[in-house]
Design a protein that fits this description.
The complex is a heterodimer of chains A (976) and B (534).
Chain A (H helix, E strand, L loop, with lengths): L3 H21 L19 H7 L17 H6 L16 H7 L13 H18 L15 H8 L17 H6 L16 H7 L19 H12 L42 H12 L9 H13 L5 H9 L5 H10 L2 H15 L18 H12 L4 H10 L14 H9 L18 H20 L18 H11 L15 E3 L3 H40 L5 H11 L8 H15 L1 H5 L1 H23 L5 E3 L10 E4 L7 E5 L29 H9 L7 H14 L20 H13 L4 H9 L2 H4 L6 H6 L12 E2 L2 H11 L3 E2 L9 E3 L5 E3 L7 E2 L13 H5 L18 H9 L1 H21 L10 H20 L5 H17 L4 H14 L1 H4 E2 L1
Parallel strand pairs in A: 6-9
Antiparallel strand pairs in A: 1-2, 3-4, 5-10, 7-8
Helix pairs in contact in A: 11-13, 14-15, 16-17, 16-25, 20-21, 20-22, 20-24, 21-22, 26-27, 26-28, 34-35, 34-37, 35-36, 35-37, 36-37
Chain B lengths: L6 H6 L2 E6 L2 E6 L29 H11 L7 H17 L22 E6 L6 H4 L4 H5 L20 E4 L6 E4 L4 E4 L12 E7 L6 H10 L9 H9 L9 E4 L25 E2 L18 H20 L5 H24 L6 H7 L7 H15 L4 E4 L12 H26 L5 E6 L3 E9 L2 E8 L3 E7 L6 E3 L1 E2 L6 E3 L4 H11 L8 E4 L2 E4 L15
Helix pairs in contact in B: 10-12, 11-12
The chains are: A mainly alpha (976), B alpha/beta (534).
């Protein structure tokens, strides 16, 4: 530790030098100042090349390079540009690492770079203060340290020794041991003594409360503050005021996405606007697709399922001119609509049934309630503004703690807040719940809100101002402050503390009526399965190693209960022996072991069945405001221990006029304390003047209908994002959407009832020539079924789809080979893929193969790959094969029904051909929603004949093989 | 979230052909006015080496097809023209979605290595017991740790024991005189081929996070692993086999399971494909149900005809052609994988070299031999794991480490010898190491102090072949082997160096995600450790 005097001395010294330099700099042309007689450094180019963005008036990154003072002060992070060494000097780092000047600005010449280097080397000793810190002036110079190092025991959750470090007053008051400090006397201050003799934080509590000791620099900072008299200071939170924002200019706000959408004058429908740009390009729509194609397209688009035979028949034969519009209405009303469109939202939210982050990947037992909430909301056509309001601030809509009985809607609003808790969260771990890990969880939530709802890559501004978009670093932290009332790294809720227990009286009655007996049964089953598992171990060992002693077998069981890395060598060897036994063919086929394995499987099934039949618990996985929030500081370079300026809640300035304060208040003035910050944010976000909220969602929905967004970068509407290809159309859709009460179903109608949507997907020669990228929508895209649609379709056409909805997710099984499969129900059926358990570490193999996303923390847009494992799966997988067989049986049955009047057992070739023909028709109807062409039918009959021969005359098997081919065909996998 | 070409990138992809090490590559050496070779920021929208190729861009694919066969007939202008064409569309707004594939891609500079075999030593092998002798530590055996125990670097301090000397005798080997513990009698014979890095360090003392870090450069799940980045960047030379193969232990998956070879946010086509040790090597590679071959043939013929009809009715749909090809590849893969996995085709002599056929080396030996057969066939990246984390010796380190050495030492040395004999070592980079090292102090477990805790501050890894210096030691730790005191190598440095050897520049290898260019090596610029390179 350096002595006080020497440091102060240095600071004074540097201040004098700077003062001198400033004098030299007083005239604008005088950049050619001399620092001393030996260095004739002239960083004029700094002004020329950097000053455009970093000058006294335009301080991008809050950096002013037009004055030496500005240079010394540094930017928003508070980090000085010139450090005691060249390598540590930020100015040199950004230039030598080519970070600056940015891409589209004139760069520094090699000579200039060298000059700069020499200049820094010659002058850093005088420019830089010894540690880059100014003397402490207020509590906010030390509060970040105290929060980080002490608040776990002396903060929001505990006040050990009756001591609370969170305010100036409480620090001065101290606790049971007396005042925490004596102003101006750090050596006599209890706080410093305890820190320095390592009484605080106590060694044994470091890991328990996830804190680390203050560093020497931090302790010095505390000392300096106490020496300075422990001033409270008058620091105001940096928030938006009525004064224009100096960091975001009006020119910045001219970016297309930051200007609120206006109803265009050029046209008043999707078709009118598309046609307008088509005319300019000299192209036009493709002809309308045929009816079968439209029926299939609409059903897949809206429900993720093919139409059933009855449905396609109905729409094919519907005589009305308005058949298409009625079909849209009808399909939109299907409960399967929410399962399809809810899934898209779950991707965006990063829905998962497990926490992720650590190997154990703990299950989130009631996350599914959020999934069902989303599906329900889409089915109800909940206005999008309400949908967002509930998910961002559902807890601030009702004073739930002060209401005797919440109704269903109010409960839903609490479930909705699960939206902000969907990301990867490792803070449940014994060792990974430190502040940096918590900040990462918060950052993920900000990312989802920023990119997913506003099209703004806010997370880029976590470490420094956004490089391309007008998002100063402080805007990130203002947004973080919005969430601070609920996501507070210094008042962190453990997994257990994130639960609320609310239910309607019916739910409660149902629980007390059904669950007690079932719980008892469950306990019995769980006990037995434990015993059986042990027994399987001993049995496996005795089959594989008949000579092993009983003692060793019991020792193996004991070793299994010890964590693998805590085992002694003999214990490891025993376990390894067991592992060998488990993979050996002898034990796997031994009947005794198989019996036990079957019993275990039965018990497992039974346990899952019992769990399923229980009334769901009242537990809600929610997020709610604590009524108080730790102060929010800008974190320099995003580092958790480098707190900078104090900021208050606020919204991205670029999306406002820059001179409107962010106003918020407790929505329940006479009820529970609430900060009201998120509620105010959600109201701002869902106001009709918001420039991006409506545009982002209509663009996403357009993307799902048309294969790509009007803005191709769904999550980035900033400068680095794509520009809208039809800006008027985007705006029309957005304004119309809001005017239609934020109704997503109305939006679907606007898009799907258009000629643009109804056109054929065939690429004509002229379209290929004049519109190769389909920029002008001269045809519909061809789309491959996504993972869920593919699996659900295979199940549906095979009669194996259980259409029941909601509730606890369907369990998955992991085979020894690592294949993850979804468990069927007791009827040998499966529910839709959206109901399969999404455990981050156990993604069902079939879905995974077809680009089912990893949530990290979410998925803004799925990628589409075309790879051979997909072919291998559809060709060789046993389950797909079994489904083909079931599909064939379905067709045979259908043929039997429709044809029971016709004569059976025909022998002539033409009769047999007729039978084949009928089966082929049905197969095409069911799987492809159309009739086969003559060519396809001829091929089919020929192949079925041949297959029958290969299957030794077994026509059923031939039909199965034929159906398997259809399931593999491009016609099945692609939607026109 | 598509990597894509910018006009700038396309201009920079101007190129010169050269022949080095018998491989063709495209050198990115044309500097235009805005090109700065040492560009280091992650946020620049520069796509010099954006590696996705458009399926639609047929001639581009032909070009790669040609280079991989060693034909040089294509004109530069044509290549450049194609690149520009795809970039023109994308310059203001990318309207076409990118399809990802495993076609061979151009490197950024001349590669030293073409393939990688990663021998992953899960659990954290002890540096001071195996490679990094510490006489001072040995002398202090049994004495208390002389500093503040919190500095040892683990979160819990309650079970820290006393200083623990090296557990095995150590000797110098080869002309280079590098140190090896006597429990590595085979690896030590390869001393003069090994490039030892004694100064590795990482950021987290937990297995989970340290594993994420060493594999993906990040402490958290969800990021692509080194192998994924490599195959994203380079594609594969053999389309009949997966580009990135994982050979995990038949006894069980390693700690962190399949996340050790995840593609994270990269398209799934770049994730590692585990080859199963028994039965069908890849899931679904062979039929899981009985069916006469003649039926399969009939079915395939019907499928091909139906798909051809479908495709003909839909002109200008490149993805349909790609799908048809993926079906053809699927059937070729079945043959190719079975052939590659058939180690019985190797001589008894070779089996012996790897320790196949005897306990306890058989299992690891088989995986090492398979790795050789796979890289020989153009598989880009092979990862070998042990089950769970056998190196993690909190208890009984001396016997636990000895046991793992007995399983792996001969196979590892056998692999190196075999690769060397066939000349493959020149173009194959072998990397050996774990996720962290171990502490100089013993650790209490119950009442005994016989193991070491995790040490994120220093560990030893080694490389061999693929353009690195043999018989070379890099970096130093303190007298206890506890902290790096000279030439530290971070995980990012390590990754950047491996990418460099493969002809990739860590800065140029990126993937656009949510408007951010994601890189294996993160934000702060890493250092390619040129000192390791021959």
């Amino acid at each position: 530790m350096k002595t006080q005097t020497s440091r102060i001395g240095l600071r004074k010294g540097s201040a004098i030098v700077i003062g001198l330099l400033l004098t030299l700099l007083s005239s604008p042309h005088c950049f050619g100042f001399q620092l001393d007689s030996t260095t004739n450094a002239v960083p004029v180019f700094i002004h020329e090349k950097c000053g455009r963005c970093h000058n006294a008036s335009t301080q991008k990154g809050e950096l002013d390079l037009s004055s030496l003072e500005g240079l010394r002060r540094g930017g928003e992070s508070g980090e000085p540009l010139i450090a005691p060494t060249l390598e540590d000097s930020r100015l040199w780092q950004v230039v030598s690492h080519d970070e600056m000047p940015p891409e589209d600005e004139p760069e520094l010449s090699e000579k200039e770079v060298n000059t700069l280097k020499e200049w820094i080397v010659a002058n850093h000793s005088t420019m830089a203060s010894s540690n880059g810190e100014s003397p402490p002036e207020s509590i906010h110079d030390v509060l970040p340290i105290l929060l980080l190092r002490c608040a776990s025991c002396h903060g929001a959750q505990r006040t050990d020794g009756d001591f609370d470090i969170r305010s100036h007053q409480s620090i001065l008051e101290g606790g049971q041991s007396g005042p925490a400090l004596i102003p101006t006397s750090p050596d006599q201050s209890l706080m410093i003594q305890r820190i320095e003799n390592e009484q605080c934080p106590p060694t044994e509590l470091l890991l328990k409360f996830f804190v680390k000791r203050p560093t020497e620099t931090e302790t010095d900072r505390l000392r300096d503050w106490i020496t300075a008299g422990a001033p409270r200071g008058e620091i105001k939170e940096d928030v938006a005021t009525r004064q224009p924002d100096s960091l975001v200019t009006d020119a910045d706000r001219e970016h297309w996405a930051f200007v609120a959408p206006k109803r265009p004058t050029s046209g008043d429908s999707v078709d009118a606007l598309i046609h307008l740009s088509q005319k300019q390009a000299g192209v036009t729509f493709a002809p309308e697709a045929d009816r079968d194609t439209l029926i299939r397209r609409v059903h897949f688009d809206l429900t993720g399922l093919p139409p059933t035979l009855d449905q396609s028949k109905r729409w094919r034969t519907e005589p009305s001119d308005k058949w298409y519009e009625s079909m849209i209405d009808h399909v939109l009303a299907s409960p399967h609509y929410g399962e399809r469109w809810g899934r898209y939202w779950l991707d965006l939210a990063g829905y998962a049934d497990s926490e992720g982050g650590i190997s154990a990947d703990p299950i989130r037992p009631v996350a599914w309630k959020y999934r069902d909430y989303v599906i329900r909301s889409f089915n109800q056509d909940k206005p999008y503004d309400v949908f967002l309001l509930e998910q961002i601030a559902g807890d601030e809509l009702t004073d739930h703690a002060n209401v005797d009985q919440l109704n269903e809607k109010q409960i839903d609003q609490l479930i909705a807040t699960g939206f902000l808790r969907m990301g990867i969260d490792e803070t449940g771990s014994r060792t990974m719940n430190f502040v940096p890990e918590r900040l990462k969880v918060i950052d993920d939530a900000i990312k989802i809100v920023g990119s997913g709802l506003m099209g703004l890559t806010m997370e880029c501004a976590r470490c420094h101002s956004h490089k391309y978009d007008p998002i100063p670093q402080r805007d990130y932290y203002r947004l973080k402050a919005v969430f601070q009332g609920a996501l507070d790294e210094h008042n962190w809720k453990s997994f257990k503390q994130r639960k609320l227990n609310y239910g309607t009286s019916e739910q409660r009655d149902s629980i007390s009526l059904h669950n007690p007996t079932l719980e008892k049964e469950l306990r019995g089953l769980q006990n037995e399965i434990k015993q059986q598992r042990d027994q399987l171990v001993t049995e496996t060992l005795s089959v594989a190693f008949p000579n092993q002693t009983e003692h060793d077998r019991l020792a193996t069981l004991a070793a299994l209960r010890i964590a693998d890395n805590q085992r002694t060598l003999p214990q490891r060897q025993l376990v390894e022996k067991l592992q060998q036994a488990e993979i050996s063919e002898t034990t796997r086929t031994a009947s005794s072991a198989q019996q036990i394995a079957q019993r275990i499987e039965y018990l497992q099934d039974r346990i899952e069945d019992v769990q399923r039949s229980m009334a769901p618990p009242l537990t809600i996985r929610a997020l709610w405001d604590q009524g108080e929030a730790s102060p929010t500081y800008i974190l320099r370079r995003g580092e958790h221990n480098l707190a900078g300026r104090l900021v208050g809640p606020g919204v991205p300035s670029a999306l406002t006029d820059g001179k409107t304060p962010f106003v918020f208040d407790n929505p329940f003035p006479s009820g529970s304390p609430k900060t009201g910050r998120r509620l105010a944010f959600a109201q701002w976000l869902t106001s009709k003047q918001h420039p991006t909220t409506a545009r982002v969602i209509v663009n996403r929905i357009w993307h799902h209908h048309f294969g790509r967004g009007l803005v191709n970068t769904l999550e980035n509407f900033g400068r680095m994002g794509a520009k809208p290809i039809h800006p008027d159309l985007l705006d029309w859709l957005a304004v119309e959407f809001m005017d239609q009460g934020w109704s997503i179903k109305a939006l679907h109608r606007n898009m799907m009832n258009s000629r643009t949507y109804k056109q054929s997907s065939v690429v004509s020669e002229s379209a290929q020539r004049d519109d190769p990228d389909n920029r002008y929508y001269t045809r519909m895209p061809l789309r491959r079924l996504d993972a869920e649609s593919l699996r659900d379709s295979l199940l549906l056409i095979s009669g194996r789809l259980d259409l029941s909805r909601g509730g606890i997710p369907d369990p998955v099984r992991v085979s020894q080979e690592g294949e993850v499969s979804i468990k069927p129900n007791s009827n040998g059926q499966w529910r839709r893929s959206i109901y399969a358990q999404y455990r981050r570490t156990e993604i069902p193999s079939m879905l995974d193969t077809f680009d089912y996303p990893q949530m990290g923390p979410n998925c803004f847009e799925r990628s589409v790959s075309v790879v051979s494992p997909q072919a291998l799966l559809l060709l060789n997988n046993r389950q797909v094969h079994d489904l083909a067989e079931a599909f064939a049986r379905e067709i045979e049955n259908a043929a039997h029904q429709t044809d029971s009047l016709e004569k059976q057992n025909t022998k002539t070739t033409s009769d047999r051909d007729n039978q084949w023909s009928q089966l082929i028709d049905l197969a095409y109807q069911k799987s492809l929603c159309r009739w086969p062409t003559d060519q396809e039918k001829r091929l089919g009959i020929k192949t079925l004949e041949a297959l029958t021969v290969e299957w030794n005359g077994d026509a059923s098997k031939a039909l199965k093989s034929y159906c398997h081919v259809l399931m593999n065909s491009a016609s099945f996998l692609y939607i026109d | 979230m598509a990597a894509r070409y910018s006009v700038l990138a396309a201009r920079k992809t101007l190129t010169k052909y050269r022949r080095t090490n018998g491989h063709f590559f495209i050198q990115l050496n044309m500097s235009l006015n805005t090109h700065r070779p040492n560009h280091e920021s992650i946020h620049q929208p520069r796509a010099a080496a954006s590696v996705a190729s458009h399926v639609a861009s047929q001639s581009r694919r032909d070009f790669f097809g040609s280079t991989s066969q060693g034909l040089l007939g294509i004109s530069l202008a044509q290549l450049l023209g194609n690149e520009l064409k795809s970039s023109e569309v994308l310059a203001d707004d990318p309207t076409e979605k990118t399809t990802y594939n495993l076609e061979p891609k151009a490197t950024h500079h001349a590669p030293k290595a073409r393939n990688v075999i990663q021998l992953f030593m899960n659990g954290g092998p002890s540096q001071m017991d195996l490679f990094d002798p510490k006489p001072v530590l040995n002398r202090m055996d049994g004495k208390p740790y002389p500093g503040n125990v919190e500095d040892i670097g683990n979160q819990s301090t309650s079970d820290i024991g006393v200083m623990m000397g090296g557990q095995y005798p150590m000797h110098q080997h080869g002309r280079s005189g590098q140190w090896f513990a006597d429990v590595l009698p085979h690896t030590s014979t390869m001393s003069d081929d090994l490039c030892m890095i004694h100064s590795m360090w990482t950021d987290h003392p937990n297995h989970d996070n340290a594993l994420y870090k060493i594999h993906s450069g990040r402490l958290f799940m969800g990021h692509p692993t080194l192998g994924s980045w490599v195959v994203y960047g380079l594609g594969s030379e053999n389309q009949n086999l997966p580009a990135y193969v994982v050979l995990s232990d038949p006894l069980g998956l390693p700690k962190n399971g399949t996340r050790n070879w995840t593609a994270g946010f990269l398209p799934p086509v770049y994730q590692g494909t585990p080859f199963r040790p028994t039965g069908s090597p890849i899931l679904n590679l062979s039929r899981q149900y009985p069916q006469p071959n003649s039926v399969t043939k009939q079915s395939q013929s019907l499928l091909a005809q139906l798909d051809e009809i479908h495709r003909t009715e839909r002109p200008h749909r490149g993805e349909l052609e790609a799908r048809i090809q993926s079906y053809q590849l699927a059937s070729r893969m079945q043959l190719a994988a079975s052939e590659a996995l058939d180690i019985d085709r190797e001589t008894e002599e070779v089996h012996k070299t790897y320790g196949i056929g005897k306990s306890p080396t058989d299992s690891f030996g088989r995986r090492c031999l398979l790795a050789r057969r796979l890289v020989e066939r153009g598989v880009r990246y092979v990862q070998i794991f042990l089950e769970e984390q056998p190196w993690d010796s909190h208890v009984d380190l001396a016997s636990n480490h000895r046991a793992v050495c007995e399983r792996t030492d001969q196979p590892v040395a056998g692999l190196l010898k075999d690769l060397k004999r066939s000349g493959l070592l020149d173009s194959t980079l072998v990397i050996w190491g774990g996720e962290f090292g171990r502490t100089p102090t013993s650790q209490r477990s119950g009442k005994i102090y016989t193991g070491r805790d995790h040490n994120m501050q220093a560990f030893t890894s080694w490389m061999a072949g693929g353009g690195v210096k043999g018989g070379f030691s890099y970096g130093k730790t303190d007298d206890f082997g506890h902290q790096v005191v000279e030439n530290p190598v971070s995980v990012h440095d390590y990754h950047a160096t491996i990418l460099h050897l493969l002809g990739l520049h860590h800065q140029d290898l990126h993937f656009l995600r949510s408007g951010l260019e994601e890189r294996l090596t993160g934000v702060s610029p890493p250092r390619v450790v040129h000192e390791l390179i021959a």
